[in-house]
Amino acid sequence: MMVDKLILEMKKSENIVILPHIQADGDGLGASLALGLALKKMSKKVKILLEEPISFTYEFLPGKELTQLYSQGIESEFEKYDLAIALDTGDIERLGKRAPIFEKSKVTINIDHHNTNSEFACFNYVQAGLSSVGEMMYSLLDIMELNIDKDIATCLYTSIISDTGGFRYSNTKPDTHRIAAELIDKGVDVAEISRRVFETNSLEKIKLMAHAINSLQLYEDGKIAIISIGEQTMKDEGATEDDCNGMVNIGRDIQGVEVAIMLRECDDNSVKVNLRSNGYLDVSAIANQFSGGGHKKASGCIVKGSLEEVKIKLVDSIKKALMD
Amino acid sequence: MMVDKLILEMKKSENIVILPHIQADGDGLGASLALGLALKKMSKKVKILLEEPISFTYEFLPGKELTQLYSQGIESEFEKYDLAIALDTGDIERLGKRAPIFEKSKVTINIDHHNTNSEFACFNYVQAGLSSVGEMMYSLLDIMELNIDKDIATCLYTSIISDTGGFRYSNTKPDTHRIAAELIDKGVDVAEISRRVFETNSLEKIKLMAHAINSLQLYEDGKIAIISIGEQTMKDEGATEDDCNGMVNIGRDIQGVEVAIMLRECDDNSVKVNLRSNGYLDVSAIANQFSGGGHKKASGCIVKGSLEEVKIKLVDSIKKALMD
Predict the structure, then answer these.
(1) CA spacing 20 to 30 A to B110: which of A154, B6, B20, B179?
(2) Minimal C-alpha gap between A78 and chain B (Å)
(3) What interface predicted TM-score (ipTM) does this complex get?
(4) In terms of Cα–Cα distance, which of A271, B195, A168 is closest to A261?
């Protein structure tokens, strides 16, 4: 079995580097830290190599001392490493500037849950049905009979809640909850982690939210909700791209709304578009019309034009789709 | 054991009325519908008597055909009932106008998880350590060996997520997750229920949110966040008291905030105050100073004066407390 091969490779190796995808989220980061802490217990030399600094949201995670930030020229430092493990990474491009370090490693392992995984390593362990790599990692550490302590449990729990929206997405299976139960048994602080991951906003984001709400327009008897954020507003509020995350949900969550759109004006006379569907309308088909892509319920595209021009095009396209 | 007595009483009775507390929330309503559906399977005649209509949020719950809305003069209808069961109800006052119906019933049962429960029934089954009556009800139906079908599971799951904030509060225990796993195994639609319970806002609430954010003021280097909503704003937006629910969290969730205050201007030159603490400050002590009450992390009071006057008093009191 693949799992046995992975375990054998980990046991054989002395120097191990772990690489989550670029812009590591709660799942990639949590699973990396959990595995790092577990390998440390096996007396391995471990580095978790990150493309960007850990975001404020995940600063509370244990195991940070195992992380190192990528910088140009550090490739040589990793030449002596005998195993590289990519986590939560669908293809080699998602390792960004760290891809050469992964590729030059003697042995490579790829542990992932994306159904589009390109199996780019020597050993590929992909379980597309699972909510998170955190869930996969729990089972792996369990098979390895490694003692999952409070720190490792905290990392795994964070992985799982990040990728399930706190047990709210349809990828939440009975076993997801069973694993959460085991992790809480190890001492995970549910309320504190939930607060850190889900209930902490920057002041800039909150202020941006007010602008977004004030820009709200409804079409087709409230079935279509549009929110737009201008470039000047972003500058005025000192907001970052990160602060725009999830803003489309303001429209999506309004009673009666079928399709929500968020328009974000960019510098170059183009508009970044986020689309969400609450029901039957497939918004990936809408995004496709504008050379974008995504899923049935969440998609995106970038469209040339002013906010007003793009808004008219999109509303028009969605109106037609709603009539079909 | 108390559980055996309850089961015996339910088995003996033919006509059973179930009463959740006034302004029934997801837990009270979900547990009532679950028990109602289960008793139906035992061929009992069941009514779930409600003080108010089911709110939009919980309209999707199965078993609505068992509910009846209280109206004056219906007391006589329940004279022939041989068992009344109060759910999620800390004391008899929480049954509102339905209290006499409960009290006149031949046998009464009280199933609750509030540690302040006054044990007002013939049979009182109180488990203060549990997250929700939904969790208690799951165990009860399990002991009764009643087949928990998808409809009952949907009601119980809604109970549990309502009272744990979707597995985010500190009352979420390992067994809470184990029960959730069993319920999802019965076919609960996790994503749809989560959307209904947590991700549906009225348009009025969203608009009120923008006003609230625009009113935001920070004190003490961003440790204190105050949001105020004027009576005129409520009228202008056609907002209800319900729309104000959770608004205090806008302030609480801002990075660096220790204490969040929401002020809601009332008609009679008084201000309704909500207080939330993120950390060490006990906001029930603040509320006590103004004849209010609550918990360490969530409290409230009503203070005479204008929005501005009340704001000054509260900030002053919290500043002092932060210095202690």
Answers:
(1) B179
(2) 37
(3) 0.91
(4) A271
Residues of chain A in contact with residue B189, where contact means CB-CB under 8 angstroms, are: 170
Closest Cα in chain B, distance from residue A11 (Å): 32
> Chain A closest CA to B154's CA: distance in Å?
14
- Helix axes A150-164 and A133-143, enclosed angle (nearest 10): 150
Q: How far apart are the first and last CA of chain B?
A: 48
Q: Model confidence over B225-237: pLDDT tens digits?
A: 999 999 999 999 9
Using one digit for the tens of pLDDT, what is the confidence trace for A69-114? 999 999 999 988 999 999 999 999 999 999 999 999 999 999 999 9
3-class SS shares of chain B: helix, strand, coil, % to 5: 45, 20, 35
Q: What average pLDDT score do residues B174-198 get?
A: 97
User: pLDDT tens, A156-168?
Assistant: 999 999 999 999 9
**Residue contact B185–A165, C-beta within 8 A:** no
Query: What is the DSSP code (8-state) at residue B305?
Result: S
Provide the percentage of residues in chain B whose pLDDT is more than 70. Answer: 100
Q: How far is B210 from chain A (nearest CA, A)?
A: 4
* Residue B34 pLDDT: 98
- Provide the whole-model pTM: 0.91
Q: How far is Cα A7 from Cα A96, in angstroms, rounded to an integer?
A: 26
DSSP state string for A30-48:
HHHHHHHHHHHHTT-EEEE
Contact A85, A19 (CB under 8 A): yes
Maximal CA-CA distance, chain A:
64
Chain B residues closer than 8 Å to A181 by CB:
174-178, 181
Helix H or strand E segment including B219: strand B217-219
Q: Are the Cβ atoms of A177 and B178 closer than 8 angstroms?
A: yes
Q: Do the Cβ atoms of B206 and A250 come within 8 Å?
A: yes
Chain A residues with CB under 8 Å of B227 CB are: none
